[in-house]
């Protein structure tokens, strides 16, 4: 049966998430200078180096906790037939963390680790504070962009906040996750990147100001800075260096989400090029790659993902993302129909 354009974009989102994650895995959490020194230029899937204590657990073309947690979110949505259940999302993430022995490896962010330990002790998600500002919510949110039509912004923000709540409840974490989910959703609807890009600062501001919990810098302002760095760039290498220097590529949401938006722009929305550029950026390369390439995949669909790279991802990770694309297409259409009926 032939896939619809919408389902191709949803499938492209899932593969984009995995592609950006797996390509960026070997260099994750290394300074840009060390990435250059060790790899020269990453242009293909590589195994995690033994000396990288975050990537050493992963083989060639394997994705990391970014995509595993995105699938934990997706599985929870499937379990509840298209509804968002924070407790199940948290349980799924905790189940993976325990099976991977993630508490004893350098793969969990500090915010997620605290939240998961509290869940393990029996604290309900609704009672967790989770006011950390790291990027664990944004890195896994792309399936939510596949689920939610980008219509009613306050409702959209609330849905992102609910899905993020097992590990992240801070204003900046929800703002960053909303930005990525909104970009994915608008792309699935067929909006072009220039339109989406121009909307994102206002979306970021609305999400960050809905319930202020931190004294974080402005996500809207940081996204505008990131886009201006690319607009003023005079070459890929120097522009990437400026993104690293001025926007930042760390594990904080306030750095990594704007950096991901900048990389979509720099790669001119090509998912394969975007994955490679993110892998060479330095910093939280796998997470920035996961977010950026998910958006590129949503914009252009599964047919835009390099066939050879897709085959490597399938082989390394035993993927069957079509079951997600079929389910999420159905869930999204149900939500779209509900908007029409309303």
Please give a structural write-up.
There is one protein chain. The chain is mainly α and 342 residues long. It has a single domain (5-341), classed as Orthogonal Bundle (ADP-ribosylglycohydrolase fold), CATH 1.10.4080.10. The protein is 65% helix and 0% strand. The protein has 17 helices and no strands. It has helices spanning 5-24, 32-39, 65-79, 86-99, 110-120, 136-139, 142-147, 153-164, 171-188, 193-210, 219-231, 236-247, 253-266, 271-279, 285-300, 307-317, 322-341.
The quaternary state of the protein chains shown equals single chain
Kindly, what is the distance between the CA atoms of the first and last residues, rounded to a whole number of angstroms?
31 Å
What percentage of the residues does DSSP assign to strands (E)?
under 5%
- The general outline is globular
* N-to-C series of helices and strands: HHHHHHHHHHHHHHHHH
Number of domains: 1
Largest sheet: none
Helix content: 55-70%
Total strands: the figure is 0
Number of helices: 17
